[in-house]
Give the backbone structure.
Amino acid sequence: MNSSLLSRKPDSGLGNIRSSPADPSRNIDWVLMAAQFALTIIGCFIVFSASRTRVTEDPYAFVTRQVVFAIVATVVMFIVMAFDYEWWKDRAKFLYGLTLVVLTLLFLLGVASGEDRISFDLGPFNVQPAELAKFTTLLMLASYLAEERSEEVSYARFLGGLMIVGAPAVLVIIQPDLGSASVIVSVAMGVLLVAGAKARYIGLITVLAVVTVFAAFLGRLVNDYQAARIRALINPGAVGADDTYQAENAMRAIGTGGLTGKGWLEGPLTNGRDIPVMWADFPFAAIGEQFGLLGCAVVLGLIAVVLMRVWRIAHLSRDLLGTYLCAGVFTMLLWQTFQNVAMTLKIMPVTGLPLPFISYGGSGLIVYFAMLGLVQSVHMRRMR
Amino acid sequence: MAVDRRGARLGVLAIVGVLLFGLIGTRLWFLQTVEQESLQEEVDSTKLRTVPLLPERGRIFDADGRILADNEGLLTVAVDREVIRRESDRTELFRRLSGWIDQPIEAMEERWDSVLYSQLLPLPLAEDIDEPTALALQERVEDLPGVQIIEQSRRVYPYAPLASHIVGYMGRITAETKDAYTDAGYQLNERVGQFGIELSMERELHGEWGEVVYEVDNAGRIVREVSRTPPINGKDIQLTIDLDQQQYAEQALQSQLRFRRTQTANNPLDRETQFTTRVFPEYPEEVPYKAPAGSVVVMNYETGQVIALASYPTFDNRWFESDLSDGRFEELFPAVDEFGEPISPDESILVNRAIQGQYNLGSTFKVFPAYGAMNTGLMGTNEYHVDRGTYRMESVDQDLCSAGLVRCVYRNALCGNGLPCVYGAVDMETSLAVSSDTFYYSLGERFMTENDYQPVLQEQVRQFGFDEPTGIDLPFEFGGTVPDEELKARYAELGVISEAEGSGYFTGDNVQMAIGQGLLSATPLQLAVGYGTIGNYGSVMKPEIIKAIYEPGVPDAAEPGYADVAQGRLAEEPNLTGEVVRELEMTDDIHGEIERGLRRVITGPGQVNPQGAYRSTTGEKLFATYPGGGIPLAGKTGTAQGAGNYPWNDSSAFAAYSIDRDRPYVATAYLEKAGYGARAAAPVVKCMFTQLSGLTEADPVVLSDPLDENDLTPAPPMSLRDTSCFEGQFTNFVPAD
């Protein structure tokens, strides 16, 4: 392991450079990291404001867990960064295989117990293999496509890629967690697009994606289970709250925020019970009501910074693998941000897709951080 | 080349990103500037309306799964208040409805004006309508705007009046309990448990309210459903009570009380006047017993599970679910008599005497001083006391005695010749068998004098659970009293006893207590726990009446009146071995001595006294007819003197336990103002054990006929089908006690 990362020597002045400018530890993208941490910290505040009145025993219950998640996610990110992304590529098949095994196991467990299963219950936390699948599928797909050192993927390789995406996507769909499946598909689209799949290939996968996503919307199955779990935790027995009502109020919360918002902890809709599971599904409404257009612009701006930096690294990468990885991360973040904000603004139907870095949820946060760790790894080793 | 192509493709991604962000940004700007005001107006005008959803009350089963308390669906016609706010609409609607639901318009108007109906819920106009009417109304929904058929539920008791005192009854929330119930999430017009299991298990039986939240506009019209929290139904509760045994106990108790009312107590001739006058000259020669009330307890002494718990006078708990008006309810359950005075305690119906009776136990109590004496080494198993029929206290200054300032002489009960019985030399075992009073007078005094006047007897008997509630899951339990200095001081303050009497605890008090008289009081259930403790070699068990608690929805069984408890899901693991409150030291010596004594009560032999006369034990003649295959018993009679020491006020007590620990039953009976223990209470216990042994022909338990609302009796009388088990009680012998 590259321990120099964590024990970086101070610069000793010009002319006496002890490490090369190409040393990975000197090439961390600090702008990306700063934007990412700023978003995560803002997220903790938003989770607190959106959950404190709904939890009777301890108003800090959710934010405390979110902070713990953030710390764990940071550790995960640094571990991922510490390794060369080539190192990760060498383990892509193993990790991908492991993911399929875990997903199958979960499916079989579900069949055996006769109920839907999207997570393994491990005491205080539960682990969702679908999140792992997002990471490993990206790694596997990027590695697989990068093997063909040409500017355009062949049809055979495209089909192979489709199968790589298809296997975990189908396993995730039957959990059923269509939201996560749509994310996996969006990642694949980004990677394939950049890998130079022909327009008709992209067309094919777009149709597939659209069908998946529409199935998700029609079935309203997206993360419903997750939401129901959280609801049941807060208010036992209260399931099946009206989604349109939820979305209507989310939109009202944003709208009534106006230009500068009603102030920290001053939003009546955020404080009330009108928007169920706001801390996970509608944190953007909490931002809008409390901090107005200004606050929304800051958060969207920070996400834009993250996206631009990832895009830039995709550009800077010396090899196809790095570019593909970054492209996948880019599309994933873009898709989730758009989907979540747009449903809050009532221009997209309600799904349970979280707002990256802001929404409450440990599995999601860890996956974003791990993926940005990969992106950093690409950046750090671009001069190799 | 390649890099350029890659760059171009990345450019496509960037453009997609910019487009999506642009879309979001535009919409955001539009909402937060242009739409802001109208959205704010919308938010301000939106109101939520919450409609509560009633949980179904849990049911109550007996040990075999018989449904003792059930719910019955009830169709109610109600109307949405908003629809009839305008008077003309209201009058028109009431006019149209009146014929259908057989309700005059004025009555409906009255309900509209009444404050007794919730303003939030639809106004009920007629309850308990039949199904065809409900269907007809639903078909004419266009002519009857806002009218709805609501399903409500009512409590039914399929086996009433059996076990009414245990199951209990429901009633409206009272002013005193209002705050507690509303804090617990109850609605004001709910009915809640008022007595018995319905009260003690109210929280489990009730369940949790659900609610539907509607968004309503300014006019109060429902815009949409916001959320729906289904109600959580109440848990089902299974009792340890076996209705077969319960019915038998109630029948035996009632039969015996009725029989005792035909019997008389002799007004004895007065020795002082050389037997020329009666002791109570103002009364006739023979005075009938009133035998107004009584109770029976049957318990498993290994687990503490209560199998039957009968109390008389009894009632039918369905009266509390019927709509008795015009003072008819007060007529059924009077609180005051015709002169406006509170009714005599003899006649109280709504009291469970088995756990609320505040009784002197008489000689049934002697077992506990006997244990205390042996356990503290005051008296061994081979020591004798010479019973001369009377006992003179030795520790008191004899001058005080002769001056009549202190009562120093205590006598045994009278034998047939009008003189106190004399037994001669008696050891512990025989003292129990023949129920020698002087033996225990002597013990009572020695407990004081040989223990520095410390309350040692009190400590010993309290170990058996006296002077504390047993903790059975039934409300209003009486904990009993064990006389000591503190109790006397408290009673003096309350004016129950005189100041002088309450100034201290005297040896005489201990002498009285040792035979179960004086200020000692206990319930028949406490007596059963005490005897059970002898039966199981020293474990004081908490009496259990709850066998199991099930999650809501135990299904009905195929057989009517039964639930299929095997299909139920337990809410918590039931405690099958029972809860031991205390372990007493019970050596084989002590246990053997007591049990031999109690065994002789049942089987004899008695004692040949110094005059050569055979004195039978108190129960041997009665139990001579106890069937050979019956559960082998050890027991003790008791006769508690009542007000004025009139013989016809004697209350009758009997306690017995099985010495076969595979059939570990203990039973007690207490019959108020019914005569000697051996005559009134003991036959009931004898019958009960014959039934527990499976040697009787008992009536099968059947579902009750509907309640006849024209017959204003609290409960119809019951009687035992086969009274042969009472045999032996009619013989003319005069037992010692």
